[in-house]
Amino acid sequence: MSASSGLLELGNGAFGKVFRVIETDGTECAIKCQTIDINTTDRDKNIIKREFEILTLCKNCPQIIGIIEMFYEDIGNKRHIYFKTLRMGCNLHQILKSDQVLTNDHIIRFFRQIVEAVKYLHSIGIVHRDLKPSNILVNSDCTTKLCDFGASTRIKKGTIFAEISLFPGDYVMVYCPERGIWKDAGIKGKNRDNTYTIQYYKSKKIEMNVTVDRIRYYQRYTTITHCSPEQYFLELEYVTGEKNDIYSLGVILASLYPIYLESETESEPQKWYRENLFPLNKSNEHMYTNMLIKMYGFENISTLIEDESRKEEIRINALAVEKLDVRNYILATKRVIPPIMMEIIVSSMEFKPELRPTVEQILTMVDSIT
Ligand SMILES: Nc1ncnc2c1ncn2[C@@H]1O[C@H](COP(=O)(O)OP(=O)(O)OP(=O)(O)O)[C@@H](O)[C@H]1O
Ligand SMILES: [Mg+2]
Question: What is the CATH number of domain 4-86?
C-alpha cells in the first residue's frame, strides 16, 4: 500500500473496513480490508476466497463493483486481505437516510440497475443472499454498483428452492455424537456420496465427512430486515436459491418510496420521510417474526419450522397480531407506489419462492413503464 495515500474510511462492516486510497496518478480507489487470524480454520478463509472469486467473475458487469486487485500482508499472527475496487460516492442506504428527494425516474433508474446486477449474477449461477441498500453503491450521476459478496454463493443455475443445500464457506453447527453437543463448523465441500466435508471452527486440523442429518443451525446471512421468510426461519432447513434475492429486491423497491405525513394546513408543504419496509433494529427479531405472521399467517410460517417449541412460541405471538397481506401491509405504511411497481413488490414478496417472478420477468415489468 506504500504507493497509495489519502486514507479515509468509507465504510465499516462485519469483517473489516473500507478505505479510500488515492493512487500516485491521482485516481481514487476503495480498499476493503478484512483481517483474519493466520491460524484460523479454513472457514473464514473460505468466505473471503469465495467473495474474491465472485468479484472476479463479475468484473464484466457494469452494475457490479468487480475487483481491480487483491493482495495481503501478514503482521504478527494477523493476515490483512485487501480488495481494491473502484471508488463510488456513497451507498443507497445513505441516500435513503438523507433528505434528498427521489423522483419516480430516480427510483426506476436505481432499481433497474440493481435488477440488471442480479440478472447477471443469476445468469452465472450466483445468489447474492444479502441484497440491501447499504450493499448498493451509488455515484452522483445515479449509476449504481452492487457490492459485498461476503454472503454470496454459487448455485446450480435456476435453483428456486434448494432442498438441503450447503455451500463451501457456509457456517454451520455440526452434531458431535461422542460428546453429545453441537459444534461450530464450516463447510469445505460436498462429496460424491452426498456427505459434506466439514471443519470444526476451533480445531483447525479436524476435518471430517458427515451426513446432512448431523448438520444444523445454519447461519442466517441476509440482514433480517431484507431476508425472505425461508431464509429467516432457516434453522431447520437451509434454503438457498435465486428466489431469496427476488424477495430482497421487493423489500428494497418498497423502501425506495417515501412515506407521506398528513399536512396540518393546506399551505404547509407535505412532509415525508423514508424508512425500511421493516423498520427494525437488528436485535429485534421478535418483531420481525410478528411482521411475517401479519403478512403470511401463522399456518404458512409454521410450515417452515420443524422445532415444536419454536412453533409454540410463534403460535403465541400469532395470537397478538392483526392479519394483513403483503399488499395491505405496504399500503398501511402510507407509501404512494405506482401500480406496476406495487405489482413487482407484491409478487417478489410472495411467501412461496416458486411464485416469485424471475429476475428477467422483473426487468420486463420495469421496462414496461419506460
Ligand atoms: N467501492 C466502494 N466505494 C465507496 N464506498 C464503498 C465501496 N465499497 C464499500 N464501500 C462502503 O463500505 C461499506 C461496507 O462495504 P461492504 O458491504 O463491502 O463490507 P462488509 O464488511 O461486507 O459490510 P457489512 O458486513 O456491513 O455488510 C458499504 O456499505 C459502503 O458504504
Ligand atoms: Mg455490506
Answer: 3.30.200.20
